Amino acid sequence: MMSCQAWPEPVVRVQSLAESGISSIPSRYIRPQSQRPSNATTFAPHDHKPSQTDQGHYGHHDHDHVNIPIIDLENLFEEDQILRKEVLRRVDEACREWGFFQVVNHGVSHELMKSGRELWREFFNQPLEVKETYANSPTTYEGYGSRLGVQKGATLDWSDYFFLHYMPSSLRNQAKWPAFPPYIRKVIAEYGEEVVKLGGRMLEVMSTNLGLKEDFLLNAFGGESEVGACLRVNFYPKCPQPDLTLGLSPHSDPGGMTILLPDEFVSGLQVRRGDEWITVKPVPNAFIINIGDQIQVLSNAIYKSVEHRVIVNSNQDRVSLAMFYNPRSDLLIQPAKELVTEERPALYSPMTYDEYRLYIRLNGPCGKAQVESLASQT
Ligand code: OGA
Ligand code: NI
Questions:
Q1: Where is the sequence biased in composition, kind Basic and acidic residues (predicted)?
Q2: Which superfamily, per CATH, for 14-377?
């Protein structure tokens, strides 16, 4: 299998660049006109007047924002089957219509969410030399990084990140996790446990909603002890020319499902909806959940991964914690046979997640090009 040992050119830390006081960004970060945030069709609040049914169907609409659906999970954990079914129905609708939604009352401790965010902010605010001791390589991506993909001369994104393995426990190596600030390892471990538990529940909900056995998706991912979970903490420094660049290029998440803890104060995540990019307005203490390419494949495209990107701004840094919930990397992932019929044949050929993610590891984020290239030619 082809893989890559080193970055093709010296790595520049975006945070150092931002803190150096430059007033214009290096050309490597400047995107062609058509890919700049200001040039894309963004949602124009006054041109769009959704009907009543639109509002019900497509989620929350307030004065100046269309937002992705917000779902209260409280009743998921209740005995009352009628209330529980209503939550399931809302999740199903969000998965089919949006591929992206926010959840509140999800069972993860708010305290833990807050300390997770704060400790990671402190990590990124340490001196560069300390962070460099965790510098990553494109072989595993574990550690402190500043780019995705190894194409020499590629346009770069305005962000740094830290990537680590949480599950399976055989890949969990605390020695590769930050040792400072104090407690960060403990908080990562506790946060990981709760978020992975939430992920397991969401897989049960999605399996049930797809008409499959409750444990179908978890088993397809390799079962509780073999499922993959990786944390990527994104740091988007403030940027002197935010209209010329992106914090993260358009992509769909290659794995199964992502549970994102966004910055509580600074927005930046945009989700593609037709030709528009909708800026997600985070709700306090919520997680943002989105469908990844592997669930698109397993569900035979009943659920689809959705393209998203991140914009930056000139006033504030932004931190987000993305937990990627993935299949065990050596299992073949293919459409569930229950979802393959004569009218709806299998849309994708089988592939392991190991093979699948190699593409993004080499090429970096590429919209939805990869999952679309997997569509079988039948
Ligand atoms: C990601 C991602 C969004 C964000 O890490 O894959 O889409 O808001 N992050 O940081
Ligand atoms: Ni993403």
A1: 45-63
A2: B-lactam Antibiotic, Isopenicillin N Synthase; Chain (2.60.120.330)
